[in-house]
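User: Modeling request: complex.
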Amino acid sequence: MAPHGNPEAPGSAASEINREAPKVAATTEEHQESPWSLWEVFVRSSRGLSHVHAGSLHAPDAAMALRNARDLYTRRNEGVSIWVVPAEAISSSDPDSKGSFFESPQGKDYRHATYYTKSEGVKHL
Amino acid sequence: MSNPETTDFVIEGHGDISVGVHGAGASGDGSASATRITPGNALRPEDIALEISRGKVKPSEDVAEYALRIGDDGLILAQRLGHWISRAPELEEDIALGNIALDQLGHARSFLTYAGAAWGKSEDDLAYFRREHEFRSAHLFEQPNGDFAVTIARQFIVSYYQFELYTALSASTDPTLAAISAKAVKEVDYHRDHSAQWVLRLAGGTDESRKRIIQGFKLVWPYVDEIFEDDELTARLAEAGVAVQPSSLRAEFDRLTGEIMAEAELEIPGVPQSLGGGRRGKHSEFLGYILAEMQVLAREHPGASW
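Assistant: Request completed. Predicted assembly structure:
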């Protein structure tokens, strides 16, 4: 073995490791049979705020998804609470129906409090 | 350690951490993003170095030797785990193992910084400029990563041991050891959870994964007894309330690991125990290669900075 050789393949005892337990990364065909499912991650940055979508990740199940989310999305003190949701459980609006979904409220300024004038004598407004 | 002023560490000097986000950290800000970042406040190796440079902290020879053992355990394991980066079975697991490696490195830096104060050496002097026989890590920590199951088996043993150790050391009469351990124990608690989750999944997964975790435990279990071995140093320190006898941690380790092993329907491997000797500088053939890789840059370019 070279002096700067791979410590993964040490001079002795390695025969057992190499024979019985090849590196997991090498068994890609198995790995591709059942890829981990996708999870969406929501992080609450502090008390009183809402959970905000932070990103997504892969995990074999919910328990590991929470742990992966902790490792991926709260590395720099970003959160005090995490939700993970299977990506397939989220229904989203159709980007092509933006007009019918989101343009209707435009111009309806009576839906905003600022549209109305304050009545005289009303306190605490 | 008779000076009562040393019992509370002044956490300061965080100004050198650049968070890279303008105005980050305003809690209660309605527009705060989920990725708001703050460095937080925790005991860092730099804080310990500062206390040392002010002459407030200096370990006795015994305490330094003890801190060296624990620090070396973390350092060597961090180097081992770091090898998984870019090689783990999934990106997420890659990061999980990297995080654990960095936690271990953080503990090692604190312990080595503290140990070095006894001999006027820095953490880098100890990490990069000691020879193999001067390292005090136990054999378990230098065992090869093997496949993912071997790494998980090793990590499972390490984290359950370290949790008991740091829990006990949090009550040490040595305030620096207590402070480092109090921070480390929370991180190690997560390492326990991480490895236990994987032991359960590998054991209860496919025939292949079960075969591998059984083999993994068979390969690393011979190194368990060594980490619970008492010697004259631990006896003296336990007497003084600075440390605990490693053997006193064994019962709880056996109970808690036994619970997970039982749940995973795994048996404790009936394998003979290795002779050990890491605490006396007698290492297996693996450590030299780890050190060669870890130390080469610092030795080729002494004093280099970047």
